[in-house]
Amino acid sequence: MTFLNELEQRIGQQHVLTGQSMHQYLEDWRGRYTGTALAVARPATTEEVAQVVRLCAQHRVPIVPQGGNTGLCGGATPDNSATALVLSLERLNKIRSVDTENDTMVVEAGCILQNVQQAARDHQRLFPLSLAAEGSCTIGGNLATNAGGTQVLRYGNARDLTLGLEVVTAQGEILHGLLGLRKDNTGYDLRNLFIGSEGTLGIITAATIKLYPQPVAACTALLALNTIEDAVQVLALARQGLAASLTGFELIAGNCLQAVLHCYPDQRMPFQGPAEKAAWYALLELSDSESLEHARERFESVIGQALEQDLVQDAVIAETIAQSKALWHLRESIPLAEKAYGKSIKHDVSIPVSVMSQFVHETDKALQEAFPGLENVTFGHLGDGNLHYNVARGTAFTEEELLKRQDEIYALVHDSVHRFNGSISAEHGVGQLKRQLLPRYKDPVSLTLMKQIKMALDPLGIMNPGKVLPD
Ligand code: FAD
To answer: The FAD-binding PCMH-type domain covers which part of the protein (predicted)?
Structure first.
């Protein structure tokens, strides 16, 4: 019997896709990577996943795990050899249980993030992971990439929101680790090893995640700013004045919002006058556990101080939930507007906030000197020291010319990140996009240990080969 026949026997013929029906699984969200595959398997249970992995191990078939396929580093796209099996987790999409006394929820890997948030709301709880792709990304993909998003400042990234994992190992065994414990010091932290491993060590099939109280009130404001230094100072004021109630602090360059307004004419800039064309904007969010009055008082006090100190040109505080949503919608539309303008070169970097403005000025200057006419498209989660320091073709380059010079642009920006003691991947991961860059920027001992871990957990090398680790 052939591999495909055996696969069909285990999970049902209709859940093994081949030919044209594989199309949507073979290209990444950005359209930067396309691959080919032997087939796409869509198992529905952990046991089926384990059977598929055992079969792949027996036939030495490489496995590319895939969730919502919204990753930005090509991690879920197979190569062009047509030898790999894409293993889609989309049918593992049950909320298995909610424990409101322990404030935990057990969810299967293929649950769409938005559905997980809604399930928490249905029990008057908050699951705070939030990102612009939340309508299509899955919790398994979020954990495999250790996703960040807009609430990291207060709640941490996907790793911080997880207590336990169920994983199918590269040998097809099931690791039962769904404990909902906040304390468990019984040895090595395997959960944290699988989180962020981008499918190269095993397949996450379910997770026990943390729930939080829903905030009683939230306030959102958009501030127009002259400089990035001002943004950093406003962040310091907001941290000081709002402490743990500050749940989001996003930085947006003026041209990003202009691009959104151009692509989506139904969206509106909430300012009039010079603030409509400010160089920078900051989107702030406060979540309060007392009352709306309490929230507004604290929020207005901090924004008032920033205005008094001349750090802010103009400020708009949302009066209603609809206005707050509209402000967030502006921010969340940036990646889509960016995509509509064509392919860009993305740098998802983290830099200590204390040197962020210096990094931006020096890198902008070096880029313009080396590639006059390129356009910076900079936005991100300033509160976490994470910028999406992206580069678009601007007026001087065609898309092809830009992509041809990708390696030079990467080197310039990432060398600068390295000089400022930053990281070349803050939240999107490594995938195929950045794996060959690791030897230049990552500590060599860390890399050696990573390779040894990979050998120990996946000796046949079938788990997502060609991702994360350099050749
Ligand atoms: P996929 O793209 O399917 O897979 C991503 C990686 O995880 C691949 O390596 C894949 O092999 C592996 N994988 C997937 N599922 C599993 C599993 N169950 N077990 C093991 N490995 C698995 N990311 C952020 O961190 N913050 C943001 O703010 C953010 N904003 C975004 C905005 C937009 C518009 C888009 C398109 C993407 C954004 N992303 C962001 C990136 C992306 O959404 C996240 O990386 C997300 O966590 C990926 O989830 P997914 O289910 O789509 O995973």
So the answer is: 33-214
The four Cα atoms 67, 71, 74, 77 give a dihedral, to 10 degrees, of: 20
Alpha carbons 196 and 142: distance in angstroms, whole number: 8
CA of 298 to the centre of ligand 1 (A): 35
Give the Cα separation of 316 and 269 in Å (integer): 10
For residue 449, the CA-to-ligand 1 centroid distance in Å is: 24
Read off the amino acid at residue 426. Answer: A
Walk across the sheet containing 174-177 and list its strands.
95-99, 104-108, 202-210, 162-169, 174-177
Distance 72 CA to ligand 1 centre (A): 7
Question: Which ipTM score applies to this complex?
Answer: 0.99
Residues 296-306 pLDDT 10s: 999 999 999 99
Other beta carbons within 10 angstroms of residue 28's beta carbon come to 21
Instruction: Name the residue with the closest Cα to ligand 1, atom 53.
Output: 141
Residues 138, 204: contact at Cβ < 8 Å? no
Sign of CA dihedral 71, 75, 80, 83: negative
Separation CA 93–CA 163 (nearest Å): 19
Q: Give the Cα separation of 268 and 43 in Å (integer).
A: 44
C-alpha–C-alpha distance, residues 97 and 91, integer Å: 17
Mean pLDDT over each residue of the chain, to the nearest integer: 96
Report the pocket of ligand 1 as residue ranges, CB < 6 Å. 29, 64-72, 75-76, 89, 109, 131-133, 137-138, 140-142, 144-145, 147-149, 198-199, 203-204, 335, 427-428, 431, 464, 467
**137 CA → ligand 1 middle, Å:** 6
Q: Per residue in 357-366, pLDDT tens? A: 999 999 999 9
CA 114/CA 100 separation, integer angstroms: 19
Please choose from 64, 79, 145 the residue to mutate so as to test ligand 1's pocket, defined by most ligand atoms within 8 A of CB. Answer: 145
Amino acid identity of 133?
A
Tokens of 357: 């403005």
Segment 266-270 long-range contacts (CB within 8 Å, at least 24 positions apart):
267/326, 267/329, 267/330, 267/333, 268/326, 269/330, 270/222, 270/316, 270/323, 270/326, 270/327
Which of 401, 326, 413 lies closest to 377 in space, CA to CA?
Answer: 413
pLDDT of residue 300: 95
Contact yes or no for 146/429 (Cβ under 8 A): yes
pTM of the model: 0.94
